[in-house]
């Protein structure tokens, strides 16, 4: 698809959309937009080779789960384009980043803004924790740590079939607390799966708070290298660095880009809540109003009209 | 009785070489699952996944996305206990054509609690989109590969290995119940290794005047409730199920559900492990100790009918004793 916006513009648009949505809905995964906006903007706007969406701009309602009795079932992968040998595939491993991923789809013209209004509504396919049938999703990744394994399996299969398209996994650093992540990295290295790459949002935050207070994970880059990955570390808000990292040769091994991010980037006002950033909920109407004014100013937009909410 | 050595090994190889989309996955139990020869002769179709079942199951889901049909080989317990979440999210929910080949079902291993899949049927049969098959003889083991690969979705199979008796001369057919005798006093339902036990008991029961209708199940899910109820309705006393599994959640439970839902007011005796773990030992010892053998079936039938048969151990055909250290097994497990 033709790039209409710069990746910087897409990133800013993601932050604005997630902010507005969170204000209107009295909370949301705001911090994930801060940390990951450039990463998802980079993936959708320039790094991935994707075809035109195959599903309607306004998402269809929930169409049932996969079963032998549901032959019309489709996943949300159609928002990333058709499955063709030369197109890339993307997995959003931390499925609670769905709001940020949906905002990215809108910013790059793959989903209509109305899609975000369906977020977390009963009967909608635009689920809070991205499901297989949610826009841009292809598998369930709600239980953290399974995404890279799936990507590795698909990548092995695509390599075997001689497909030129790559498999990309968007990951989060909390996933390195799960043993399966390490099983997956060692397997990808053992089997020489080099049509697989990942970008990991290293924001050092998790549900309970700062990762170091929940479970220290040590030096992720050293550990990943020891398990067989090629690792590049970058500033998650530096898109040029991201481009260079993607170009890192990784023959015979998966590439994992550690994108060190700020969980409040673009919305510094959120530092007031640090380290409780996983899901931002407002404690009072005053806090909501204060945040609305302050963050809107940071994002260069007018405060969200909360009159009807 | 004809004994067949390692029927799975040949059956898998014959089938897989004809189907390049079939992949052979192993989690460090390659010779224990009789696929070592396949690995050596067809390394391009074999993936060593190491002792890492969680990744193996999600990875297999990814292979399924790419259009492959992975056969995962390991002991049954390792397919669903540790990687249950991955089984659900990466295989069962999306209906990937992943074939879970679970070796050493129930007490067929001396490995004790950690190795004995005694609740696998109860767990797997409650998983939406899952098919559950079980092998009871060499013919069924030979047929399980093609039968499993015919399933449009994920399938879990209880597979027998090593030296396996041949009881049947017609191939494995998914969904088909084998009617092994058509008596009208008692309905006996078995699957897997308990079928051989029931066959051992049948001769003595005939002599004692108990007319047994004996069904062997190789498709456990979908469970043919209608057929089971019809057979149960056709006998005088009721039903005895005998399974290499806990009595909760397996064939006994499925039979009870079918009878209750049909409103069939007949007695049911469920034989198997009774809310207990097993320990390590030989198969005949364990089957005797936990009441899974021919004599346990006779006693179950007596409970059902309220009549003594006079059958004792000596009246039953000789127990087939298998050496713990056998040339056809990779290790003592």
TrEMBL record, chain A:
Please give the cofactor(s) recorded in the UniProt entry for this protein: thiamine diphosphate
Asked if the Swiss-Prot or TrEMBL record annotates the protein with the keyword Membrane, the reply is no
Q: Please give the Pfam families that the UniProt record associates with this protein.
A: Transketolase_N
Give the source's domain of life in one word.
Bacteria
Q: Which UniProt keywords apply?
A: Thiamine pyrophosphate
Q: Which SUPFAM superfamilies match?
A: Thiamin diphosphate-binding fold (THDP-binding)
- Would the keyword Membrane be found if you checked this record's keyword annotation? no
Q: PANTHER family of this UniProt entry? A: TRANSKETOLASE N-TERMINAL SECTION-RELATED
Q: Which family does it belong to?
A: Belongs to the transketolase family.
Name by which UniProt lists this protein:
Transketolase
Automatic annotation (TrEMBL), chain B:
Q: Where is the Transketolase-like pyrimidine-binding domain positioned along the sequence?
A: 2-166
What this protein needs as a cofactor is: thiamine diphosphate
Question: Is Zinc one of the keywords?
Answer: no
Q: Which UniProt keywords apply?
A: Thiamine pyrophosphate
The Swiss-Prot or TrEMBL record describes its family as follows: Belongs to the transketolase family.
Name the species this protein comes from. Answer: Antarcticimicrobium luteum
InterPro entries the record matches: PDH/Transketolase, THDP-binding, Transketo_C/PFOR_II, Transketolase-like_Pyr-bd, Transketolase_C
Matching entries from Gene3D superfamilies are given as: 3.40.50.920, 3.40.50.970
Q: Which SMART domains match?
A: Transket_pyr
Q: What is this protein called?
A: Transketolase
């Amino acid at each position: 698809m033709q790039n209409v916006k710069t990746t910087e513009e897409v990133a800013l648009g993601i932050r604005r959309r997630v902010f507005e949505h969170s204000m209107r809905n009295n909370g949301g995964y705001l911090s994930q937009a801060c940390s990951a906006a450039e990463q998802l903007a980079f993936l959708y706007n320039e790094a991935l080779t994707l075809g035109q969406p195959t599903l309607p701009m306004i998402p269809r309602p929930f169409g049932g789960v996969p079963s032998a009795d549901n032959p019309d079932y489709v996943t949300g992968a159609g928002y990333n384009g058709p499955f063709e040998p030369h197109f890339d595939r993307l997995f959003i491993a931390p499925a609670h980043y769905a709001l940020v991923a949906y905002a990215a789809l809108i910013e790059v013209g793959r989903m209509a803004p109305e899609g975000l209004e369906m977020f977390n509504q009963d009967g909608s396919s635009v689920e809070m924790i991205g499901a297989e049938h949610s826009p841009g999703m292809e598998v369930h990744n709600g239980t953290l740590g399974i995404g890279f394994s799936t990507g590795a399996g698909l990548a092995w299969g695509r390599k075997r079939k001689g497909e030129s398209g790559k498999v990309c996994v968007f990951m989060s650093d909390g996933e390195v607390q799960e043993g399966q992540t390490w099983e997956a990295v060692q397997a990808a290295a053992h089997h020489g799966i080099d049509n697989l790459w990942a970008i990991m949002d290293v924001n050092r935050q998790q549900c309970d708070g700062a990762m170091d207070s929940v479970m220290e994970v040590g030096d992720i880059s050293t550990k990943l290298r020891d398990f067989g990955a090629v690792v590049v570390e970058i500033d998650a808000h530096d898109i040029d660095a991201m481009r260079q990292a993607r170009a890192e040769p990784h023959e015979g091994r998966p590439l994992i880009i550690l994108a060190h991010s700020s969980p409040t980037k673009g919305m510094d006002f959120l530092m007031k809540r640090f380290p409780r950033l996983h899901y931002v909920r407002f404690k009072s109407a005053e806090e909501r109003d204060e945040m609305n004014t302050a963050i809107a100013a940071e994002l260069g937009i007018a405060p969200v009209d909360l009159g009807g909410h | 009785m004809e004994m067949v050595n390692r029927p799975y090994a040949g059956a898998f190889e014959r089938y897989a070489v004809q189907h390049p989309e079939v992949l052979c996955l192993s989690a460090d139990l390659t010779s224990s699952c009789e696929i070592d020869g396949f690995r050596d002769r067809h390394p391009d179709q074999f993936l060593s996944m190491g002792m890492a079942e969680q990744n193996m199951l999600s990875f297999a889901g990814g292979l399924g996305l790419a259009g492959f049909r992975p056969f995962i080989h390991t002991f049954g317990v390792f397919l669903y206990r540790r990687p249950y979440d991955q089984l659900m999210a990466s295989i069962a929910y999306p209906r990937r054509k992943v074939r879970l080949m679970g070796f050493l079902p129930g007490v067929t291993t001396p490995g004790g609690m950690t190795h004995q899949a005694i609740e696998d049927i109860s767990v797997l049969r409650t998983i939406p989109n899952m098919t559950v098959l079980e092998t009871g003889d060499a013919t069924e083991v030979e047929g399980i590969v093609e039968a499993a690969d015919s399933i449009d979705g994920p399938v879990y199979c209880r597979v027998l290995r090593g030296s396996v008796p041949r009881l049947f001369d017609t191939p494995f057919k998914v969904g088909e119940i084998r009617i092994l005798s058509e008596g009208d006093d008692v309905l006996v339902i078995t699957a897997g290794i308990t079928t051989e036990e029931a066959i051992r008991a049948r001769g003595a029961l005939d002599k004692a005047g108990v007319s047994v209708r004996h069904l062997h199940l190789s498709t456990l899910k979908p469970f043919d409730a209608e057929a089971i109820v019809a057979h149960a309705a056709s006998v005088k006393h009721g039903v005895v199920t005998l399974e290499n599994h806990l009595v909760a959640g397996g064939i006994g439970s499925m039979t009870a559900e079918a009878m209750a839902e049909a409103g069939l007011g007949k007695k049911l005796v469920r034989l198997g492990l009774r809310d207990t773990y097993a320990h390590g030992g030989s198969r005949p010892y364990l089957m005797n100790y936990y009441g899974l053998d021919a004599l346990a079936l006779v006693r179950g039938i007596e409970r059902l009918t309220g009549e003594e048969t006079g059958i004792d151990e000596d009246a039953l055909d000789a127990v087939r004793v298998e050496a713990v250290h056998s040339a056809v097994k990779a290790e003592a497990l």
